[in-house]
Amino acid sequence: MQKKKVIIIGAGIAGLASAIRLQNLGFEVEVYEANSYPGGKLTEIHKNGYRFDCGPSLFTMPQFVEELFEVSGKKISEYFEYIKKDIVCNYFYEDGTRFTAFADQEKFAETASNIFEVEASQISRYFKKSKQKYDLTSSLFLEKSLHKLSTYFSKDTVKAITRINHLDVNTTLHAVNKKQFKDKRLIQFFDRFATYNGSSPYLTPGIMSMIPHLEQYYGTFFPKGGMYSITKGLYQLALDIGVTFCFGNKVDKILIENGKAIGVLSRSITIEADIVISNMDVVPTYRKLLIDQKAPEKTMKQPRSSSALIFYWGIKHSFPELDLHNIFFSEDYRKEFEYIFSKKQVIHDPTIYVNITSKNESNDAPDHCENWFVMINVPGNEGQDWDKIIEISKKNILKKLSRILKKDIEPLIEVEEILDPRKIESNTQSYQGSLYGSSSNNKYAAFLRHPNFSQKIRDLYFCGGSVHPGGGIPLCLLSGKIVSELIQNEYSL
Ligand SMILES: Cc1cc2nc3c(=O)[nH]c(=O)nc-3n(C[C@H](O)[C@H](O)[C@H](O)COP(=O)(O)OP(=O)(O)OC[C@H]3O[C@@H](n4cnc5c(N)ncnc54)[C@H](O)[C@@H]3O)c2cc1C
To answer: Which domain holds residue 452?
Structure first.
């Protein structure tokens, strides 16, 4: 029997995951990618002896990457290696407080109780609750389609619904943290987990306090060779099992006939397929590739998650007090970063992230030098004067880092590259350059995210950070899993 053909639009991490799973299920998979390289946001740059991971820096839930090698019958160690980190992150506060977040929960609680006004047992209770929230909801919100009736008949779903009062859905993450802790610095610490899905702690529901569980229970990891090795490993795996890639092939249209996706148009050529999956952000998928179809306007109008402004700096100095991941908090970020936000925009916490992979990978920077990835969260691109924002931000960031690290940073910068929301948008087609699709700034957000399939057009599916279950590497990998399961069920494989 002839194999059914699947076209995937985009070789982002979710496109790669979907391709690997469907190829293993016996489909013939072709991936059309606008760029000349795979990975989308998960890419890298090299400049004058420095290597920088461009996008994600935090790797959690590696089991979802492992699964892709398992289902392909390949040994992951031949493609990709990673280590578990003992120190999750170093935190620097304006008042001089320094806090090292250890991966080990007991050590974390003990260190926290030595620094903040808190008992170790309070921290342990917080993590326990965080775990309960995750255990109750992960199979419903992350691992299944929220838009299929069968999901609601499962035992897990019924259990989650009966325990809804324990999930803090009717309050905000900040309110949950304020209730639990007295120390402002600790509240700020736990509030920052809202940025993991580009939301605001003052708006995102309290259920998001499950996020620290992912870091503290499952751990954080670092791939050998940097984050880009995730892309490299999955791309090589896809090639080895027979997936075809067409780079430099932007898709301009999804072809629909009698309510069914029948292929795509790329470089004025029609390519037929039985199934089409879009890994392109769902907003431009409708606005550019499906212009003759009615778009789900409510979904299109969901507020977007934050974007980012990143400086990649080659620093000719070594800072022993810094680790792979470092966070510099602002005492009054409204004052410090007010110029970035218009009145109507939600202010996320523009914490400064300084990630330095050369702490783990000596090839990432010349001797005695470091490759700094310096990021602040900013709103999405709505035509702001980004050049001005970049100029002011650079000054502010340098002033702050120099003050806290007690060393003038600017003269140490020998290499610089900058990524801003405009470029994130043009490099990956992510609407407004958002990092994680739509934000989770209200309790209905999970239900308002676009499903992994079209409710109107047969054989059209969606994966990636802008659709269910959301953004970030683990969730994007799960969207690939959900899509492949939906197709498997549809074709009764
Ligand atoms: C600066 C930054 C920091 C981040 N930090 C983290 C982190 O620490 N941890 C974490 O887990 N996540 C993080 N993320 C989020 C994470 O990178 C994304 O959620 C994830 O990589 C998105 O993957 P995706 O599959 O949705 O596709 P994307 O990466 O958005 O890629 C989509 C691909 O589709 C292609 N494409 C689009 N339209 C077309 C078309 N018409 N034709 C052909 N090809 C097309 C694009 O060229 C692109 O390659 C970060 C993101 C950024 C940018």
So the answer is: 5-42+59-75+225-302+438-490
Bond preceding residue 469 cis, omega within 30 of 0: yes
Asked whether residue 149 is assigned to any structural domain, the reply reads yes
Q: Which 3-state string (H, E, C) describes 293-331?
A: CCCCHHHHCCCECCEEEEEEEEECCCCCCCCCEEEECCC
Atom index in ligand 1 nearest the CA of residue 480 equals 25
Is residue 375 assigned to a domain? no
- Of 195, 194, 237, nearest in space to 66 by CA: 237
Task: Based on DSSP, count helices (H) and strands (E) in the chain, helices before strands.
Answer: 16, 20
Q: Which residue, by CA, sits nearest to atom 48 of ligand 1? A: 40
Q: Is 7 in the pocket of ligand 1 (CB under 6 A)?
A: no
Domain boundary among 218, 251, 286: 218
**CA distance to 49, 65, 481, per residue, from 478 (Å):** 35, 10, 5
- pLDDT tens, position by position, 339-391: 776 656 555 566 899 999 999 999 999 999 999 999 998 989 999 999 999 99
CA of 49 to the centre of ligand 1 (A): 25
Q: Kindly give the distance from the C-alpha atom of residue 282 to the centroid of ligand 1, in angstroms, as a whole number.
A: 12
On the question of pLDDT at 166 being above 80, the answer is no
